[in-house]
Amino acid sequence: MRKGWIFLCMVVLVLTGCQRFEKPTERTGLDKDSHSYSYVSFQESKFKQIAMNVPGVRDVRMEYDGRKVILMVLPEKGWRPEQYRILANRVYHKVNMGSPVTPVHVKVIAPENWIQAP
Known about the structure:
118 residues; Alpha-Beta Plaits; 17% strand
């Protein structure tokens, strides 16, 4: 009886010690890439909230490509395409201040391409 309890405790410890039960092909987000910044956690709502507080940003989408977080920004009306780099830099600096460890890339997408963007 005592050996059974010891065995059961060992099984419970092993199962709880394993962090990942799903196959590598079924993993999503930062768990998908074994070389990613897996110790970095990012909250989509946090990044979106920071980016939405930058003047000139109407909407934000977020993706993860296996290496970095990509923020796709929809500018407010009145921003010309030659000014998109300025807006992207502003968003990047604000987000980087809020989460300096997470690698972030900012893309400003023209309003006519916003529907087509992933």
